[in-house]
Write a structure and sequence with these properties.
It is built from no helices and eleven strands. It is mainly beta. The strands form two sheets. Strands 2, 4, 5, 6, 9, 10 and 11 form a seven-stranded mixed beta sheet that branches. The radius of gyration is 14 Å and the shape is elongated. The relative contact order is 0.34.
Amino acid sequence: QVQLVESGGGLVQAGGSLRLSCAAASQFVFEIKTWGWYRQAPGKQRELVALMRDGLNKNYADSVKGRFTISRGNAKNTMYLQMNSLKPEETAVYYCNGDAHLIGRGDFDSWGQGTQVTVSS
């Protein structure tokens, strides 16, 4: 399997910025075809924030388009979410997701443990 670890969450004021990171690791040779960021606010369902397919094609939720950017890191199997002009209603736990292909073993969908983002008013 592939393990994902998020970092970079914290407390910011409305209008501020944060950059979240996600690092992937495995005992086996692998490649992540699709990276994703999701978030879950208290009492709400988990929702898609951003997707990146094959490191090129990107898709964003309408509510974050123009403010958030998903990108590949310089290090292999590292991914970022740059969040600008944050709003209080975007307070949530943010999760990294990866659709990974492990050579000779198959495809696996993996989730990180989540990182808390709190936006104060």
